[in-house]
Amino acid sequence: MLELGVKFLISYFIGSLMGSMIMGRLRGGVDIRTMGSGNAGGTNALRTQGVFFALGVVVIDIGKGAIGAGLVPELNVPFVAEDPTLSRTWLTICCATAVVLGHVWPIYHNFKGGKGAGTFIGTLIILAPKLIIGAVGVWAWVLVMTGFVGLATMTAAIALAVYLGIAVLPEEQPLFIYISVMAMLIVFWHRSNIVRMREGTEHRNDSLMIFRRKKASSNDDQS
Length: 223
What we know:
This protein is mostly helical. Helices cover 69% and strands 0% of the residues. It has two domains: 1-127, no CATH class; 129-223.
């Protein structure tokens, strides 16, 4: 249990290294949590600081997810012996969970972080890289159809859990449990987006709704 506890904390501390805060310091002290939606993730970074800032945020947040799930479970920690009774699979799942929780509730930044999607994708690079293509496909489809980034993120996470429930159980039970829990948490962490969508105040990326734009062009041609 000592190995599990120590490595869980290490992954959590890595997750608490916020990409937006690191990029903000490089830019002279910018804190995007005081701007736009107040979220510390890549979407708000893009809206408030531009493409290059947001790209740096995304790379850091995805990267720390991969480190937490990939490197920490295999780490030789001084004075912490490897526990022979501890499943390596479940250790990896726990470290992946910890790094996402660190991103959402970062200890270095008053527990005010992002919504976990980018770091979650980073853990999938280690746990199930083949699932990323499908997740990105669902995310992109919902985004171009609705214009809502938050809705696209929630739908992609839920779609992953549903797919695994149908396709891989019972063989990949730990992965199914991890992704199902993450899907529920991602929906919970996006609850403010859900409220704004219901109220009609959620930011919509109309420029990405390519099918809507084509329809509008068609109507213009007929007039």
